[in-house]
């Protein structure tokens, strides 16, 4: 079986991630590693991480949903 048939990790990437995207990903990974798997807990972890939301306001569930949707577009 040829491994080149499988998706490469960055195959779908259109551009390199920004510093903000890297920091957001790192904060989300730290939350998951700490056993946080629910949205309210993730929002609390993001607020405790020191990484501001794009608007500079505290993270809320709605801001998180909007930001992840925007990044996925």
From TrEMBL:
Residues 4-73 form the Recombinase-like domain. InterPro entries: HTH_62. This is Recombinase-like helix-turn-helix domain-containing protein. It comes from Roseateles agri.
